[in-house]
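Exercise 3.2. Students should predict the tertiary structure of the chain below and write it as structure tokens, then compare their answer with the key that follows.

Predict this chain's 3D structure.
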Amino acid sequence: MDIKEEILPYIKDESEIKADIVEAKIDAFMIGFADWLSKLSPSQKVSVWSKDGQHSGIFTMDNEQLLERYKRMLKNGYLKQKEQQQQQQQQQEQ
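Answer key:
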């Protein structure tokens, strides 16, 4: 048997590597969401607006709304972190 034939099953091509990275990122996102959701208090799971935004009151958010809130939080947190890094870099340059 040729050495190439022996090691071929252990070598991943670029598309397999990318698929593994995507799967790992999805897993990390899902675990992060589940952890975040489990730590919310009942009062953090309510909104003063209905899902369609037409009625005010006290409404329990569904999973879709909570997911959107989580994604906004991640995006805002990421942007703030990026801003802080840029400010620190500017201070170091001065």
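Discussion points: The longest strand covers residues 56-60. Strands lie at 46-49, 56-60.
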